[in-house]
C-alpha cells in the first residue's frame, strides 16, 4: 500500500517522528494500527448495543446521559 502526502504533510510527519525518536513511516503505521484497533472496538460495542436493544435491554435516559458524559471525559 502506498500513501501520498503533500510536502508540508511529510515535513510535519518527519518533525513529529523525530521528536518521538522514530521515523515517519513507523509513525504513520502505528497511527493506522491504532485507528484500526479503535474502529474494531467501536464496531464491537455497536454490535453489542444492537443485540441488547433487540433483546429488550434498555437503560433510562438519565443513566445514558451519565454514561455518555463519563465516556466524553475519558
What brief labels describe this structure?
74 residues; mainly alpha; 3 helices; 77% helix
Q: What would your notes on this structure say?
A:
It is a single chain. The chain has 74 residues and is mostly helical. The protein is 77% helix and 0% strand. The chain has three helices and no strands. The longest helix has 31 residues, at 24-54. The model has no long low-confidence stretch (mean pLDDT 94).
Give the SSE map.
Blueprint: H1 7-19, H2 24-54, H3 61-73
Helix pairs in contact: 1-2
In short:
With 74 residues, this protein is mainly α. The protein has three helices and no strands.
Rough outline: elongated
User: Which H/E pattern describes the elements?
Assistant: HHH
Low-confidence stretches are none
User: What profile does the largest beta sheet have?
Assistant: none
Number of strands: 0
| Percent range for β-strand residues | under 5%
Q: Helix segment count?
A: 3
Q: What's the pLDDT, averaged over the residues?
A: 94
**Pairing-aware structural class of the strands and helices?**
mainly alpha
Q: State the end-to-end CA separation.
A: 33 Å
What gyration radius follows from the Cα positions, in whole Å?
Answer: 19 Å
Helix proportion range: over 70%
Amino acid at each position: 500500500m502506498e500513501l501520498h502526502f503533500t510536502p508540508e504533510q511529510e515535513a510535519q510527519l518527519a518533525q513529529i517522528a523525530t521528536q518521538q525518536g522514530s521515523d515517519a513511516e513507523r509513525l504513520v503505521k502505528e497511527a493506522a494500527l491504532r485507528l484500526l484497533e479503535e474502529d474494531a472496538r467501536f464496531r464491537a460495542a455497536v454490535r453489542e448495543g444492537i443485540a441488547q436493544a433487540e433483546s429488550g435491554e434498555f437503560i433510562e435516559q438519565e443513566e445514558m446521559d451519565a454514561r455518555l458524559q463519563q465516556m466524553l471525559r475519558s
